[in-house]
Amino acid sequence: MTFYESLKTCRWHLMVLLLLLIAIYAKIVPEMVQQWSQDENYSHGFLVPLIAGYFFYTRWPEIKDTRVVTWKPGLLVIIFGLFQLLIGWLGTEYFTMRSSLIVLLAGLVLSFFGPAVFRAITLPIGYLFFMVPIPYIIYDAVAFPLKLFVTKVSVLSLKVIGVVVVREGNIIMFPATTLEVADACSGIRSLISLLALAVAFAFFIKIAPWKRWLLICSAIPIAIFTNAMRVIITGLLAQHWGEKAAQGFFHEFAGLAVFGLAMVMLVSFGAVLMRLGKKTEDKRQLAEDSVQRTEDREQKESLEVLEVKELKKKDVSENCCVSIPIFVAVLIMFGAAGLYINIHQDLQVPIKKSFDQFPTTISSWRMVGESYLSANVQKVLKATDTLARQYVSTDGKKVSLYIGYHGGGKDSGGIHSPKHCLPGSGWYEVSTGKKVMNLSGTEINLVQSVYQKGSDKEVFIYWFQARSKTINDEYSLKLAEITNSLLYRRRDTAFIRISVPFETDQQAAIAIGERFLRDVFPTIQGFLPG
């Protein structure tokens, strides 16, 4: 039976599974689409399903005539996809739960139609990964080095053409103004979209596989180069016409122009690759097509013989592509996953006391200032309660304390790690390390980091907390969230950060932060639920 015949014969079985998939991802996919519309880094997501559909359409003549063979090991892929979905759901890890949809689609194709159909349909399914926004911890791990690299290249180029400029991290300082190279200028935004388009373009044109990979990889240097040009031109405008000339309309227009230039360079490189060795490749392609036609004919004849043998056996399942045991197994797994996701809901764990009651005087420390999150920040953070205060000791030492508590209910967001929040606001990491402090018999797992922004330097001492457990890395935090959600229906977490500004003496700043921590830790624990 061919793929086309199996679709017609088993349409009701497949329709039931499709409806279950829709029910499972009814809360997941719409949020992803909303992110496409709100986050410029992933606006290409709207095009990805259309391009994947086009790939499927162009391969339809090959796909529809591919022979179907039920493949039981495909169930393992489905089980893995459902496990990935549940882990992502319990830990609020969006990339994991969203990409599980693609894994499940691959598993369904393998289970019901076999490896041959999966090979024919691999490109359309695999291309769907481009529609899933990558985790921010990975995004910033890539964006920050790119940002520094683009800044260095831009400053060096400006110096070569005679512009007086100084660089501090991702800050470019001119005699009359200062510019910050933000994430948008790092090239990561162009890179994500350009990679998706490069893959599509590489498979639209007929070139050898090695040229295809070369074209896809070329998106990386093209994105970096064009964004470096954007920073250089912005710097020249700011130097000669002031900072306002490099902002507003020009800044937005430059982003579009840079991406347009990147597309022109990509298409031009693709045209060069098409011309390179075209005659030799045409001859090789003709020979390969001839061999392929012979193999296809022999395979078709052998399959016809096999089909005759199978018909003689009078298999009761000959009129349906679906193996009933596999269908029932998938049906039960999909139904269970859909029920769990739609019924399971974590409890909203209240804080012991509102942070409004947090003392203004703690030991030798006195509050001298308090900050509040803006509506836009709170909309993104979705914290249940926050505290942002500045304290000064009797001997004049200054520290800042931030506590963000997330109760874990349906309207509560997840913790935003400093590893992507601080670089996103212009700070770059100078050093970081983990440490365990013993406070009156209680061990606290901490992170001690030094960040710099321009000439400002600060020591940050922070940790995450889940059910009285202190955690000093993001992956352990996710594991704690998953475990607590699964066992206790709780995903409440807190983030505590102490920061100390300094000029030269880093060790003295660390000592001040640790001293404040010893004094404030018992008070903090009196507010957070255990």
Molecular structure report:
Helices cover 57% and strands 16% of the residues. It is α+β, with helices and mostly antiparallel strands and 530 residues long. It has four domains: 3-133 and 320-343, no CATH class; 136-276, no CATH class; 278-313; 355-525, Protein Transport Mog1p, Chain A (3-Layer(aba) Sandwich), CATH 3.40.1000. The strands form two sheets. Strands 4, 5, 6, 7, 8, 9, 10, 11 and 12 form a nine-stranded antiparallel sheet that branches. Strand 4 and strand 5 (365-370) form a beta hairpin. Helix 2 runs parallel beside helix 15, helix 6 packs antiparallel against helix 7 and helix 9 (136-160) packs across helix 12 (219-241). The termini are far apart.
Keywords:
single chain, 530 residues, alpha+beta, 9-stranded antiparallel sheet, 3-stranded antiparallel sheet, 19 helices, 57% helix
Topology:
Blueprint (H helix, E strand, L loop, with lengths): L2 H7 L1 H14 L4 H10 L9 H11 L1 H5 L9 H17 L3 H20 L1 H13 L8 H25 L5 E3 L2 E3 L4 E3 L7 H17 L4 H9 L1 H23 L7 H27 L2 H35 L11 H20 L17 E2 L2 E6 L4 H7 L3 E9 L4 E9 L11 H7 L3 E12 L2 E12 L2 E11 L2 E3 L2 H15 L4 E10 L3 H20 L5
Antiparallel strand pairs: 1-2, 2-3, 4-5, 5-6, 6-7, 7-12, 8-9, 9-10, 10-11, 10-12
